[in-house]
Write a structure and sequence with these properties.
The protein is of the alpha+beta class. Helix content is 51%, strand content 9%.
Length: 407
């Protein structure tokens, strides 16, 4: 029995960056031997065990063979005869197909160290094209490591393009897709994820609503970058730069989908794109079964982001309706995330990345003003039921009028 660290733990140590997860592979062992040593089995599809003391995962070396469509369409074979090299060749990228023993001696049969030095993301073998999830994984790794100068090898991009054209991507489950998408959006350069998917044709298959934004012009006065797709990538870039949470990044990605529906003879204007985009945002939300908080914020940002930009121009009654829609009294954090998404949208414009966004403080002040209205005095005056609701609304409108005059 020989035990090796594999994959990301080896890759990141060689890159000199913190190692987050450690995967281990066991060569020359049987399930019975693992159980005899106190390891606990957890793998349903292939033999994975938890260490009796540390709880860390150990997987038996295995080979795999394509047996059906999609990510799950594989049969696995684990036995003591499977070599380390056979286990490593089934992995996606050369930089993930290295192993090291306890003395940090590296086994690198597929030249992962060479590709680390060259800053190349390259597939290990032609079997790469058997797993459609790898298209998303490579795009995610590109987003993670592009800051270090990594790019996708041309031949790997060709295989990703073949997968995108094969129909295999449609076999991916919503859960697996969302796991990769959400992780990619939280990388330092999430816009690179979208760029790589677009370069290999996968964006058109997985998110045609976003792909449709590229080549669609906007008024240069407000959008010096002009192209709606380029603007979306810039907004996503700003969201990462300002360390926004996943909910905000997802909303930033989807906020302008309605512009993809504008007839060409109306370009570069996009009248009512906020409302037109809602059905598209809903479709993307449902396609990937995004978490509820991500879905809700994306829809609200899509509908109201232009309200955010015009916050100081809004009538007190319109401002009150906005606050009501966000339920700022019970869910203040969601309104904060809306403000953040609006600010990222404003900053995601060529040459305007550092421009101030006074609308943010104005909206926060309005929310605080509305929240300052106390219910108890109205109850003491005898208001109840629907009348109480109307009285609260009148008081909130009164304080918002005063707030706007003072501001």
């Amino acid at each position: 029995m020989r035990i090796y660290k594999v994959g990301g733990a080896v890759r990141d140590r060689l890159l000199g960056i913190p190692v987050a997860d450690i995967d281990r592979v066991v060569v020359g062992a049987t399930t019975e031997e693992m159980l005899a040593k106190g390891f606990r089995p957890v793998g349903a599809d292939f033999p994975v065990f938890l260490h009796p003391k540390t709880g860390e995962e150990y997987a038996l070396a295995r080979t795999e063979r394509k047996s059906g469509r999609g990510y799950g369409g594989f049969t696995f074979h684990a036995s003591p005869e499977v070599t380390l090299e056979e286990d490593l060749i089934r992995r996606d990228l050369t930089i993930n197909a290295m192993a090291e023993d306890d003395q940090q001696n590296v086994t690198d049969p597929y030249h992962g160290q060479r590709d680390l030095e060259a800053r190349i993301l390259r597939h290990v073998s032609p079997a790469f094209a058997e797993d459609p999830l790898r298209v998303l994984r490579v795009a995610r790794f590109a987003a993670r490591y592009s800051g270090l100068g990594f790019t996708v090898a041309a031949e790997t991009l060709d295989l990703m393009r073949q997968l995108s054209e094969s129909g295999e991507l449609q076999a991916l489950t919503a859960e697996r897709s969302w796991k990769e998408i959400s992780r990619a959006l939280m990388e330092d350069r999430p816009q690179v994820f979208i760029e790589v998917l677009r370069a290999c044709g996968a964006l058109k298959v997985l998110m045609p609503e976003i792909d449709a934004l590229f080549g669609v012009p906007q008024p240069e006065t407000h959008h010096p970058e002009i192209d709606t797709g380029a603007h979306t990538l810039s907004v996503l870039e700003q969201a990462a730069k300002h360390e926004q949470p996943l909910t905000v990044r997802w909303a930033c990605l989807l906020h302008d989908l309605g512009k993809g529906l504008t007839p060409e003879d109306e370009w570069p204007r996009h009248i009512a794109h906020e409302f037109k985009g809602l059905k598209l945002i809903k479709a993307v939300n449902e396609r990937f079964k995004a978490p509820r908080d991500c879905q809700e914020l994306a829809l609200l940002v899509g509908e109201f982001h232009t309200h955010g930009h015009r916050a100081q121009e809004l009538k007190p009654s319109t401002l009150l309706e906005l606050l009501q829609r966000f339920d700022v009294y019970r869910r203040p954090q969601r309104f904060e995330e809306f403000i953040a998404a609006c600010e990222m949208d404003a900053r995601g414009r060529k040459g305007l990345e550092e421009r101030s966004y006074p609308q943010a403080d104005y909206l926060r002040g309005a929310a605080n003003a509305a929240r300052s209205v106390e219910v108890q005095p109205l109850l003491e005056k005898g208001f109840k039921g629907p009348e109480l609701g109307e009285a609260i609304k009148r008081e909130r409108l009164k304080v918002l009028k005063a707030y706007k005059e003072k501001a």
